[in-house]
Design a protein that fits this description.
Distance between the termini: 61 Å
Oligomer: single chain
CATH topology of the largest domain: TIM Barrel
Strand order of the largest sheet: 1-2-3-4-5-6-7-8
Number of helices: 22
Largest sheet: 8 strands, parallel, barrel
Length: 574
């Protein structure tokens, strides 16, 4: 299985969710008694988290300004856009648009964090200063304050966004991050460093990111010790940062140019006795990423190194297939690898794109409960591969943690959490269960932070997320720790989440799209285009002559990286 990619078809990508979940329920191998015990253990963890430690600043913030509030959405928009706006005038307009219409006063005094309350005061006053002008002297004065205050407001909001970023970024340089990491490393934690920076847009970007990774590996290697790789810090690498055309339409070029760079990074990581994880990205890039992984891992120079790692997203319908494929590849190559199981960070984008493109179905599970079930089922699968795979479980959810503790049965694994989140949960488990815990720690300047920050806020800002609920005393521990299998039985697909074909259900059926990242689909399109007509001619009165055709018009359109062309020829009559 590790040799071919036949199982990663459009059919698997858009598999029927209900049928797939039935298979995953069996794969999880959790009896009703097991599930009851796990939920009870998780509820106990929730109670302890609430009584034994203070919430972090970010948890306070998410509890007060979640994505279920207008104010929370305004702040997320502001955070995402703030440092990318090119000029002060536009920043002022953005602040006015996102802050002024919101009802900040209703949040005053409700947060248990004094810093969040202070922020609310500032936002409330800012909103009042920026309200629409009213006639008369009061309006004139308000307009004057507005003009005088905008630079101050701009500086204050920018500073607030940067302070928020400090909760997520371990250091602006790898040296700063390594220094800050020592405190928790002395308590038995370890780190996986993520060099901030999104997809490369140019070859210059890719070259810069590759150098950042290489420099970081050299710095991390200095603190690695002569012990198993799993006990040393490591690094996470995004393939999209290594090439500006990391996509199916440019697969041949991307493979030729990414593989040598990634091999060099992997060899440097091996020499440093550290782990190197390939981060997961969009579902459209899954197969090309596996092809790159196979090429790199097959290099004989990497034999004997147990630090090559791959991230698998449980919210994807092909997650189980990916784990089987990785296990087979490791067996074939006689290697041991690491697999980090995550739930996923691109849900909103993936689902909306599927609707826009008119695809057969969604590539991801449509509910949180379904993703949680998939996570547990694939955790069970990872434990069945421990002869070849070292499982790494990234989660901030008490139920998922409790389930892993029940499943492990003495087999090796580690938990992972994000820097700045899930601290109390993992501190309890690390201290009392003796589990390993690795902290995923972003490193970089604030200019590279915001896209990463917004993904984290989108993941954890929804009112159904564990991080959001944990500080809300009105939500009972039993509710937070509810069995996802039970949630799945009681839940129906959200009426707001319509299948791609049903987006225009009230008026018309959506046009059918094609998955232009699937090899089988592309082959069928090529076959359909390659039609030979032996004697084509115009449908007009009279006989066509043998005169050569003349190009009259050509139309070309680029769609998701694949170019389609329509060429019209004219054959003159005699």
């Amino acid at each position: 299985m590790g040799d071919t990619f036949d199982q990663f078809t459009t059919q698997a990508k858009f598999a029927d969710e209900a049928a797939l979940l039935e298979r995953l329920k069996g794969q999880a191998e959790l009896s009703e008694s097991d599930r009851t015990q796990i939920s009870a253990r998780a509820a106990k963890l929730v109670r302890r988290i609430r009584t034994e430690a203070k919430p972090t600043l970010m948890e306070h913030f998410l509890a007060e300004y979640g994505l279920s509030t207008q104010e929370g959405v305004a702040l997320m928009c502001l955070a995402e856009a703030m440092l990318r706006v090119p000029d002060a005038e536009t920043i002022d307009a953005l602040i006015e648009d996102k802050i002024a219409p919101s009802d900040w006063g209703k949040h005053m005094g409700t947060a248990s964090s004094s810093m969040v309350n202070a922020s609310t005061w500032a936002l409330m006053l800012t909103g009042r200063v920026l309200e629409d002008e009213k006639p008369g002297m009061a309006g004139v004065l308000r307009g004057a304050v507005r003009r005088l205050g905008e630079p101050v407001i701009r500086a204050a909001v920018s500073r607030a966004m940067k302070e928020m970023g400090r909760q997520f970024v371990l250091g602006e340089t790898i040296e700063n991050a390594l220094s800050r990491a020592k405190k928790l490393e002395d308590r038995g934690y370890t780190y996986s460093y993520d060099m901030l920076g999104e997809a490369a847009r140019t070859a210059r970007d890719a070259k810069r990111y590759a150098k950042d990774y290489a420099d970081a590996i050299a710095a991390i290697a200095k603190v690695c010790k002569d012990r198993p790789v799993a006990e040393n810090p490591g690094i996470s690498v995004k393939l999209s940062a290594l090439h500006p055309r990391y996509e199916v339409a440019k697969e041949e070029r991307a493979m030729a140019e990414i593989v040598p760079v990634l091999k060099d990074l992997a060899k440097a990581a091996k020499a440093g006795n550290m782990g190197l994880n390939i981060d997961a990205e969009e579902q459209d890039r899954l197969v090309i990423s596996l092809k790159i992984i196979k090429e790199v891992l097959s290099d004989p120079e990497l034999a004997g190194w147990d630090g090559f790692g791959v991230v698998v997203q449980a919210y994807g319908k092909r997650a189980s297939l990916v784990i089987d494929w990785l296990g087979a590849l490791a067996e074939k190559l006689d290697r041991k690898i690491m697999v980090r199981l995550v739930k996923g960070a691109y849900w909103d984008t993936e689902m909306k794109l599927a609707q826009v493109e008119g695809l057969p179905d969604f590539p991801l599970f449509t509910t949180k409960a379904a993703t949680d079930v998939s996570y547990l089922a694939n955790a069970r699968k990872l434990f069945s591969y421990t002869d070849r795979i070292y499982p790494q479980f990234a989660t901030h959810n008490a139920h998922s943690v409790a389930a892993i503790l029940e499943m492990a049965e003495g087999r090796p694994y580690e938990f992972q959490r994000l820097h700045g989140m899930g601290e109390r949960l993992h501190e309890i488990v690390h201290r009392e269960e003796g589990t390993r815990c690795r902290i995923y720690a972003p490193v970089g300047a604030h200019r590279d932070l915001l896209a990463y920050l917004v993904r984290r806020l989108l993941e954890n800002g929804a009112n159904s997320s564990f991080v959001h609920q944990i500080v809300d005393e009105d939500v009972a521990p039993e509710t937070i720790a509810e069995d996802p299998f039970v949630q799945l039985e009681n839940a129906e697909r959200s009426a707001m989440l319509k299948l791609p074909s049903e987006v225009f259900a009230e008026s018309r059926e959506n046009s059918t799209g094609f998955d232009l990242t699937d090899e089988g689909t592309l082959a069928r399109i090529d076959a359909a285009r390659n039609v030979s007509i032996p004697d084509a001619g115009p449908l007009v009165a009279g006989e066509a002559t043998g005169h050569p055709s003349t190009l009259l018009h050509g139309v070309s359109r680029l769609r998701r990286g694949v170019r389609f062309s329509l060429i019209v020829f004219y054959r003159p009559r005699s």
